[in-house]
Design a protein that fits this description.
The protein is α+β, with helices and mostly antiparallel strands. Helices cover 18% and strands 30% of the residues. Bound molecules: zinc ion. The site of zinc ion has 8 residues, from helix 1.
Length: 268
């Protein structure tokens, strides 16, 4: 089988057994990625890159799958996307496109705690639950607060970042070196850090979401495939976690990081 595709974040969801499921969107069809486990896969970069916003072809993309112009002008790459605390739509203040920012920011958001190799705090739109947790490769996640908009969630995240990190240690995550962390206890400890108006958004519900990933064998070391320096790879697919494909020998490929890259994907 042979497919061509422009890479983008793999759509992901949980099945009834709380195992992450993934798709790759090819030009011709959707590929159920877990069906490729144990098979020899060839990824070949076709030396074409397309901006995920304007769709034009560029020699280099700037960041997050955007060309330089879109990265600095498109509302999809606005400051509040990365830093929720900079949201201003609730005050009617425009960053790049107020209508877009209102629809994006003025909806329920979650502040969550997750264990993806270390304890971290994050913000996501409620509609992205549990997708966001799968994308980060979390083993467990727990809702800390639920807010009316993105700004409030950003305020809470900033408050919690004084005490815990917001990064995913991707190498540990891919080697499945996950420490034991009692998310309920951490949540209870962090509750007292909320001040003033932010207290009202704390969520009492303590349901921890566990997530399993389709991985046949965890690598003991990992080395990322870099499509700007290598033409591709040919190896047996051993697993999928976060937005990474994990191959034999510890080669890993961050699909999302190559958003906009055209590749040929083939397997027997
Ligand atoms: Zn563009």
């Amino acid at each position: 089988m042979e497919y061509t595709l422009t890479l983008e974040k793999m759509p992901a969801w949980l099945n009834d057994q709380a195992q992450a499921q993934y798709l790759l969107k090819a030009d011709q069809d959707f590929i159920q990625v877990q069906r490729l486990l144990g098979r020899q896969i060839t990824i070949e970069f076709l030396n074409e890159k397309y901006c995920s916003n304007c769709g034009n072809r560029f020699e280099q993309l700037y960041r997050m799958g955007f060309c330089q112009n879109c990265f600095f002008t498109a509302p999809q790459a606005g400051e509040s996307i990365i830093r929720p605390e900079l949201s201003r739509a609730h005050e009617g203040i425009e960053d790049r496109d107020l209508e877009f920012e209102k629809s994006y920011q003025l909806q329920p958001h979650l502040v969550y705690l997750a264990n993806s190799g270390d304890l971290k705090v994050g913000v996501t739109r409620e509609a992205q639950r549990p997708t966001r947790w799968i994308d980060q490769g979390a083993s467990e996640a727990l809702v800390f607060a639920q807010t009316e908009n993105r700004f409030q969630a950003g305020q809470i995240e900033v408050a919690l970042k004084e005490y815990i990190g917001d990064k995913t240690p991707w190498q540990r995550m891919l080697k499945n070196e996950i420490p034991e962390i009692d998310l309920r206890k951490e949540k209870e400890n962090l509750k007292s850090k909320l001040e003033g108006d932010l207290k009202q958004f704390y969520v009492e519900d303590d349901e921890v979401q566990s997530i399993e990933y389709p991985v046949q064998e965890w690598p003991s070391k990992v080395k990322s495939l870099n499509l700007d320096k290598e033409p591709g790879l040919e190896a047996v697919l051993k697993g999928i976690r976060g937005q990474y494909l994990i191959f034999e020998g510890g080669r890993v490929f961050n699909v999302r990081a190559y958003t906009g890259y055209r590749i040929k994907l083939s397997f027997a």
